[in-house]
Amino acid sequence: MANIFEDESLFGGRRQNTIFKDKKPLDHRFLPDKLVHRDEQIREIAKNWVDALDGVTPSNLTLYGKTGTGKTAASKFAREQLLEAASNENAFIKVEHIRCTDFTTEYQVIAELCNRLGRDVPSRGWTKGEVVNAFRDLFRTNAFGKKLLLIVILDEIDILLDKDGDGILYTLTRTNNVAVLSISNYLDFKNLIKSRVTSSLNDKEIVFPPYGADQLSDILSERAELSFNEDVLDDDVIPLCSAMAAKEEGDARYALDLLKNAGELAFDESAEKVTGEHVRKAKDRIEHNKVSEILSTLPLQQQRVLEAILTLTRQKEEITSGKLYDSYTEISKSDAVTYRRIFDFINELELLGIISTNTISRGRGKGRTNIIKLQCDETLLETALYTI
To answer: CA 20 to 30 Å from 173, out of 39, 95, 276, 327?
Structure first.
């Protein structure tokens, strides 16, 4: 049988692509030679990490900012720069990036660090004390009289803290020659940390504000030059992607996804150019995929809460927690959960970006009320809810 990937009739000449010359720069994980509009934040990281070149453990850092504001990219960019400088100065420095979506317990993180640094540790089976001791043994002076200095980047640390507590921070901050750079989307993630660990962490904070439309346009223009063939983008494509992403809280990942999907749609249609219409279709496709993917993983009770929110939205109602619970109980009948449990569902749905909440004051003596709003297209949500 002929190799299926060599069947040009199936892939429409994809290997001779008239739209793309290289898709990799449109991936949010791609690290360009320069990060536009993040010079200030990278310099702040560098100011703290420069001590490592003198053999001094740097201060711990925390990077805050919403999704798609360049936190991970900036930390990786600074890492590459530091390692290059360390090799020039013959300094023994390691910088390890840990995605806390992949390693969700203290044991897993420490074991992974040991393995990356050359010490074999099983993924399970040892006691916590054994794996921590194996980790700390790595920092003894080696045969050449050098001591290892390690910077650990804990990306999306709130996921790890929420699942396994703050033991990882206590262990790392109490280990000599180890500095921590934490990355979080949430300013309040330190509520998950006990006071003794907060004191030990003693971190400096760097905030990554959302990108504006003009900044997103600069980012997309640089990536487009690397990714697309000449003269295939209509003039309105990048401004439109930028404007749409600016409305999504300045999310550069979303902007890149829009541009990439628009290009793929143009290619699938055998179009000569990527147009604004392709961008609008790409937006619909991305939102549909996002909502469908999220809803497919939600428990039944959370789906019912969303159905109640959709019902009240269609009725043009101001959605308070009380009204939401009444609508939810009508849908769930005898299978409803408690009013208190609904608040957990609301928080989880807000973290997923499907809804937003805003606490408002009703005036003196009338208390405060949570107002809930949908953050996705009503028709899209309805379609996804009833096709699960």
So the answer is: 39
Integer angstrom CA distances of residue 149 from 8, 92, 95, 96, 350: 52, 6, 9, 11, 39
The answer as to whether 118 is a domain residue is yes
- Residues 271, 254: Cα–Cα separation, whole Å: 23
CA atoms of 388 and 295, how far apart (whole Å):
8
Q: Which residues contact 313 (CB under 8 A, 6 or more apart)?
A: 319, 373, 374, 378
CA distances from 243 to 58, 77, 215 (A): 39, 26, 10
Quick check: pTM over 0.85?
no
> Please, are residues 242 and 255 in contact by the beta-carbon 8 Å criterion?
yes
3-state class of 155 per DSSP? strand
Determine the distance from the C-alpha atom of residue 325 to the mean position of all C-alpha atoms in its chain, rounded to a whole number.
31
232 and 101: one domain? no
In the chain, % of residues over pLDDT 70 = 93
Tokens of 355: 């809804």
Q: What is the CA radius of gyration of the chain?
A: 24
C-alpha–C-alpha distance, residues 215 and 250, integer Å: 9
State which residues of the chain have pLDDT below 50: 15, 143
The domain containing residue 278 runs over which residues? 212-295
In a shared domain, residues 246 and 169: no
Digit-coded pLDDT (tens) for 118-163: 999 998 889 999 999 999 999 886 545 578 999 999 999 988 998 8
Give yes or no for a contact between 66 and 249, defined as CB atoms under 8 angstroms apart: yes
User: What phi and psi, each to the nearest 5 degrees, are found at residue 181?
Assistant: -115, 110
Whether 116 and 146 map to the same domain: the answer is: yes
Identity at 165, one-letter amino acid code: G
Q: Do 166 and 107 form a contact (C-beta atoms < 8 A)?
A: no
Provide φ and ψ at 256, rounded to 5°.
-65, -40
